[in-house]
């Protein structure tokens, strides 16, 4: 039973390029959460998605960031025109039904470095 | 909105010694509390969680945590640390009102010396 998969594990981009981060939830999980961890800080909630729906994107910057979770395939976090401040670790988590009492299972993260 | 404070940024402990990591939360109602561990370059693994009932919660890897409502705390403890416990530890709080969103503390890095 594979856990949450994220790829790539490391991503280097130059300023102005696009970054695409992928997350495949655990089997049977239809709820996906993205968190960002800036250096020396805890994880900050970005967005919560169910299949084909964005439920809450209140933690995501209004510009340049977008997320999707299509009917088929992984969830994608997309950052356009990256800037140095986007350098961080981006974690994806999944759960079966989106309830707080459920464990959110985290992937290994994608570490984005913007040069 | 709920929030979490982990007062200790870094703790160094000798192998075999006891460990206690502090966590204070802010939330108006009964919170849902979690402790996660993150090894270098890895994702987060759940150690334990508290929702209700017995305020002393047992987790994996020999960890336990105690919920103290009067102190708004949820401190993590281990009686005897192993070198493999060196990692970063995060306390998180969830709330019934927005039941999917976890708020994390800034983390405590634990170094274990031989």
Describe what this molecule looks like in 3D.
The complex is a heterodimer of chains A (115) and B (114). Chain A has no helices and 11 strands. Helices cover 0% and strands 49% of the residues of chain A. The termini of chain A are far apart. In chain A, strands 2, 4, 5, 6, 9, 10 and 11 form a 7-stranded mixed β-sheet that branches. Chain B has no helices and 12 strands. Chain B is globular and about 45 Å long. Classes of the chains: A mainly beta (115), B mainly beta (114). The A-B interface holds A 4, 6, 31, 33, 35, 40-45, 48, 55-56, 59, 91, 93, 95, 98-101, 103-109 and B 4, 6, 32, 36, 41-46, 49, 51, 90, 92, 94-96, 98-107.
Protein chains sharing the most extensive interface = A-B, 29 and 27 residues
Number of helices of chain A: 0
Quick one: overall form of chain B? globular
First and last CA, distance of chain A = 37 Å
The profile of the biggest β sheet of chain A is: 7 strands, mixed
The helix-and-strand class of chain B reads mainly beta
Indicate the mean pLDDT of chain B. 91
The share of residues in helices of chain B is under 10%
How would you classify the quaternary structure?
A: heterodimer
List the helices and strands and how they pair.
The complex is a heterodimer of chains A (115) and B (114).
Chain A: E1 5-7, E2 10-13, E3 19-24, E4 31-37, E5 43-50, E6 53-56, E7 65-68, E8 75-79, E9 88-95, E10 105-106, E11 110-114
Parallel strand pairs in A: 2-11
Antiparallel strand pairs in A: 1-3, 3-8, 4-5, 4-9, 5-6, 7-8, 9-10, 9-11
Chain B: E1 3-5, E2 10-14, E3 19-21, E4 24-26, E5 32-38, E6 44-50, E7 56-58, E8 64-68, E9 73-78, E10 87-95, E11 98-104, E12 108-113
Parallel strand pairs in B: 2-12
Antiparallel strand pairs in B: 1-4, 3-9, 5-6, 5-10, 7-8, 8-9, 10-11, 10-12
């Amino acid at each position: 039973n594979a856990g949450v998969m994220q790829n790539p594990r490391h991503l280097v981009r130059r300023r102005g390029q696009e970054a695409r981060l992928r997350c495949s939830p655990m089997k049977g999980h239809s709820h996906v959460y993205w968190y960002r961890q800036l250096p020396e800080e805890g994880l900050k909630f970005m967005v919560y998605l169910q299949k084909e729906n964005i439920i809450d994107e209140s933690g995501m910057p209004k510009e340049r960031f977008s997320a999707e979770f299509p009917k088929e395939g992984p969830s994608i976090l997309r950052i356009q025109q990256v800037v140095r401040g986007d350098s961080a670790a981006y974690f994806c988590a999944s759960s079966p039904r989106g309830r707080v009492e459920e464990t959110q299972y985290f992937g290994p993260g994608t570490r984005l470095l913007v040069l | 909105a709920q929030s979490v404070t982990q007062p200790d940024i870094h703790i160094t402990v000798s192998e075999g010694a006891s460990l206690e990591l502090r966590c204070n939360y802010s939330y108006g109602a009964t919170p849902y509390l979690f402790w996660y561990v993150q090894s270098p370059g890895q994702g987060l693994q759940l150690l334990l969680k508290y929702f209700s009932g017995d305020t002393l919660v047992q987790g994996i890897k020999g960890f336990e945590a105690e919920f103290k409502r009067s102190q708004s705390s949820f401190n993590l403890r281990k009686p005897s640390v192993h070198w493999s416990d060196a990692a970063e530890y995060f306390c998180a709080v969830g709330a019934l009102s927005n039941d999917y969103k976890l708020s994390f503390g800034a983390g405590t890095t634990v170094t274990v010396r031989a």
